[in-house]
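Researcher: Please translate sequence to structure tokens.
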Amino acid sequence: MSGERKRQGAGEGATESLRGLAAVDEVLREPAVAALLDTYPRDLVVDAVRAVLDRLRREILDEGRRVEAGELTAAHLAPWVEALLRRATTPSLRRVVNATGIVVHTNLGRSVLPDEAVAAVAAAASGYSDLEYSLGRGERASRQDHVHDVLCTLTGAEDALAVNNNAAAVLLALAATARGGEVLVARGQLVEIGDGFRIPDILRESGAELVEVGTTNRTYLRDFEQAWTERSRAVLRVHTSNYRIVGFTAEPSIDELAALAHARGAVLVDDLGSGALADLELFADEPAVRESLAAGADVVTFSGDKMLGGPQAGIAVGRAATVDAMRRHPLARAVRIDKLDVAALDAVLRLYLDPRHAIERVPTLAALAAPLDEVERRAAALAESLSALGGVTAEAAPSVARAGAGALPVAEVPSAAAVVTVTGVEADELAGRLRRGEPAVVGRVHDGRLHLDARTLRDAELADVVAAVRRALET
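Model: Translation complete:
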């Protein structure tokens, strides 16, 4: 029999078997499904029934799935309908326990907010607030008022503005200062910042024209001078926070770039990216916002949810004339910061008014600054608890953690992990079961064993991890 005749025969058999498939009305009359109408709207239940039936038809007709007659009955399909409804009405965003060792994990939501910020978000979300209202004057105000003064205090800037992310801050800065003109950027700083977004793309959308200066590894002030034309409006310096060029390198200082730009009636935009304000040894090589402003940068931009440890936000601080031009630009409305992020950012920034308190209270800083012996104690405690489970072998071992979020790319943070093996279960399978659990636990597999890094775990989460492994063993 030819292949075509075989497929035709299989199709005929599938069509024949589907004649016994329960109809929509029949499934709706099934007692278990009818009971769902007391919980869910009828239209939603009907849609779920149709979706289950359509999926089964496709599996049989298109994928050649073989089914028994009992699988086509309303009673057999009822649990699938209930599961689909439960999934459709359950919020998609789930809690994850981060055991990867990456502190600011972009895919897991970046920075964990301090309790003060969580309380501020809850207060702003659960009722009305003075977001854009002056209680003293009884009239409209700006949402920027809540973070303006504290940002200026912390950075020494004349003016400050918060938008919804750092890419938006860079876009707004360039649109407000260089639209229709040229922006000079060192070739080695034309970075991709994640998810395919690139500095040249952002610059293009600002309405300015990119002028690449120098070479990938060595760029001099004279390269900027030679590239300058009557259309040059700004110099953009981009901190390469997600990679490093080492060896035979050169670049002009921020002071030199500022002097050049100002002498020719242009502005200097300094994109620092990670926004490290805390005085941590780990941040020693990160450019400081205050130093950039003191050197003459007209506007400095950075993220709120990276090394600052706050919510997603883009922060711009600098000279009053430049920041005010950004504030008045039409794009400012399109990229404005949300009220919940304003509340969280306000709370986080105020912790920085006491630097030592910030390192203790901001989870991102606390995780990065935690002494190694504290992390080792946590890893040992987790390993001991896991080893008490039947079939589980766990031991504490040295590990290497990282800051994450494209920041501090070459910095390795000494850490410790609970290294886990389970009899009869491959490491990848165990990791998958933990990811699908509630809460989900995300670790990393290395050399055939599951590593649960304790630098990104909090003491309160250790019991959750143990319970998650116990449930994974029952799967």
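Researcher: Any highlights?
Model: The longest strand covers residues 392-404.
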